[in-house]
Amino acid sequence: MIKYKVTDIPEAHAQMIQGDFLPGSIPVHFPKDERLCRKYTSLFLNQKDIETGLESLFLINENLHPQIVYALFTTAIVNLLKCFQKSKDRVSLNENTFLKKNKDIEQDFERYKLWRNNYFVHDGNGMMESKAFLLVAPEYSPSSLGGAASVVWRTTLQIDYYKEAKRLEVVMQSAWRLVTEEIDSIGEILNKKYSKKSREELLSYGVAGISCTKVDEYSVEEIKAMRPQEDANNG
């Protein structure tokens, strides 16, 4: 999988990429009728979410405050499972395909999905027990209530976050591999397809507004000066 290093230049409203490509290459858009483009983009978004979740897991250690450990673990679970949720903004990963290829972690995956839905994200009360109560005053009191009504609750789910972080890491690494394989597969199809196009046709798709150069080769002012030319070419 080819993954370029991207640097944002906020002052210039530009992005710079570094990687293994021919000097002088020009990034262009995919044509609007390319059906694989949305899925290809979605796979990279899913990969980024999984990597962010893994980074959170790697930070968990016994020296951290329990609330920080809880937050890091929650981040990892949410980032993993949102890749499998239906969304109008991206193509989700196919859960059946994932579990078919990873039967050994199916139980863990289903458990984390349950935790996510009933505990970490949605308040389904499936893992908490609550009791609302009134305080009845003692017999000697002139009033019938001895205090204000309230609610007490306790968590019925006890999680060993350090142990589960290791198990969750295995699940997330499996998801990362699935995403990477699909990126490679679609990338190969796209590269093969567009390698047959002429340079003129590729340029007709419109410049993408990304510069292929090392960041330190230009000042911010020089990068800003590039933008009107790119926009004019795009028009």
Strand order of the largest sheet: 1-2-5
- Summed over residues and divided by their number, the pLDDT gives a mean of 86
Anisotropy-based shape: elongated
Helix amount, in percent? 40-55%
**Terminus-to-terminus distance:** 31 Å
Low-confidence stretches: 227-235
Q: Major beta sheet, specifics?
A: 3 strands, mixed
Instruction: Briefly note the structural class of the backbone.
Output: alpha+beta
Question: Approximately what portion of the residues adopt beta-strand conformation?
Answer: 5-15%
Rg, Å, rounded: 26 Å
What is the total number of structural domains? 2
**What is the chain-wise order of helices and strands?**
EEHHHHEEHHEH
Give the helix tally.
7
Tell how many strands the DSSP assignment holds: 5
Short recap of the structure:
Helices cover 49% and strands 14% of the residues. It is an alpha+beta fold and 235 residues long.
List keywords for this structure.
single chain, 235 residues, alpha+beta, 2 domains, three-stranded mixed beta sheet, two-stranded antiparallel ribbon, 7 helices, 5 strands, 49% helix, disordered C terminus
Explained architecture:
α1 packs antiparallel against α5 and α2 packs across α4. The strands form two sheets. Strands 1-2-5 form a three-stranded mixed β-sheet, covered by helices on one side. Strands 3-4 form a two-stranded antiparallel ribbon. It has two domains: 59 residues, no CATH class; 126 residues, no CATH class. The protein has 235 residues and is of the alpha+beta class. The protein is 49% helix and 14% strand. β3 and β4 form a beta hairpin.
